Amino acid sequence: MVPQVNLLLIDEIESSRSELSSNLIDTVPRFERTDIDLEIKSSGKSEDAIELINQDGDIQAVIITWHSFDQESVRSYADLIKKIKDIRLELPIYVLGDDKRGFNIINESESIESFFYTDDVLSDPESIIGYIINDFDDRCETPFWTAYKRYVIESNDSWHTPGHSGGSSFRNSPYIKDFYNFYGRNVFVGDLSVSVDFLGSLSDSSYCIGKAQQAAATTFESKRTYFVTNGSSTSNKIVLQTLLRSGDKVIVDRNCHKSVHYGVLQARATPIYLSSILNTRLGIFAPPSISEIKKAIDSNSDAKLLVLTGCTYDGLLSDLQQIVEYAHQNNVKVFIDEAWFAYSLFHPDYRYYSAINAGADYVTHSAHKVVSAFSQASYIHINDPDFDEDFFREIYSIYASTSPKYQLIASLDVCHKQLEMEGFKLINSLLNYVAEFKQQIDELTSIKLLTKSDFVKEFDHLESDNMGHDPLKMLLDISELPYSVKDVHQYLLDEIGLEIEKYTHSTFLVLLTLGGTRSKLTRLYNALKKLDSGRVKLNKNRRVAKLPGTLPDIELSCAPDVAFFGPRDTVSLKAAAGETSAGLVTPYPPGIPVLVPGQKITQEHVDYLTMMASQNITIQGSFDGDIYVVDSSDKNN
pTM for the full model? Predict the structure, then answer.
């Protein structure tokens, strides 16, 4: 299977369009390419062209003929170019026109990829198509993956690490040969050592790895992009320790992933926590309100950094453009953990809420979560004008292995290529699948697929703060079913092999990623319909869990790093009131820390955690009912 590559010619003058189209179309067969299926489409109206671009994700270049230069026409052409870029930011636009007007045309829009003289299309169309195809090939480049694959295929003798020597120690063993057979030859011959110099070093971004990172930065509209092979948990810590020094103030969304909390600890910074807004009916939380974020910035004029989650687990999206603008006005850098939203730039329905598009200084993406990369593969994107690259590399070296997994690096290289070349097409299909699924689910009586309008009813600030929602994070409200959550979970696993991403006492979260298909959704619907109709052999024993209404505020009695790294002791959770927490204590779900290091523990905290535990909710940071507290005994004074 080879990719379909369509070039779209937009020419509103019918007589010229016919001749131009004919010349370009007749030229295509002379480009003997077995790796792509090249075709030229033409449109005589801007409106039709926009519709084509919306529908046809295989369009990889747009060619616009610019005939007139009166004020109205210029405005019309500039508007057309903007509309195209609003749909697909990555789509290159080429303009054909009068060579005497070339400079003027280029000055009208910074979104024009290149300019060609119209007569050249008539006299030498091969050069025009060749230029565009060459640009297409450049966009398709995977510098690391291409070189890595070529090296592996060469089958050089391995006289270096790793010790299995291309799988030989597995392949020749009667005891562990099954391991080799299960994964196959390429996994082992592709497991290389950093001794292969020309492939480059991850720690200093040299050679092919450096070129791959540059290519990814272009795809993600970033000044710099770095590959990380041990997850966004590590990416978050690298960013935080690059930016923060001991005692620096950092404004932190309390709902952030625990890696952010640990990164702040390791940097020995002083966190200013934003409140969590928990919905007890659904068991999910919303991002902090914009008014609270602005208040925190105003009250902490010396804060160096603001850290937020760009897309919550359940798909709620903050209006980052407002937030980033306000933070920058107050000289506060912005770091967005966008682990669950790596495709945000590549569809017009999402781009407004993209952290990169909003101008965030630092963004991390878990490339393995919702797009096409191996587990643990992550990106760090940087657009900070004050970026200290030397110090960043020192922190990066603290966390990066000197023996990174080359397959992870290669997966990051091909991941950005897919988003560049077909991200829009894939996301468009997925959104259509969800719309179809929603129509079917709406016919059920006891199961509901929640949408933005539902979240607006649950959280007061969503509408006023212009928050969005990612429909690919499908949150199913099953609170009306008569079955226990555990039984429903087991039924879905047995019926269709569905492993739930996350569930609460009343919801299931189902992720539709780039690997999602319509057939998978059909199977899910079939199982849900049976649950809804009662045609299942499950006991009707649902007991509704009751979550506490409000999380107690965080008040620090000492610096978090002092509590975390200092002497500690364990006490029973029930007897912890009056102590100072030395660790992070987090009920999951919903995954919001109730206690952080340095926090004075009150009876309210104890009651909250006890109630959560009584609902069989996992309390991370609690060990057999005990938690770590600061040891304030005389022996440590």
Answer: 0.94
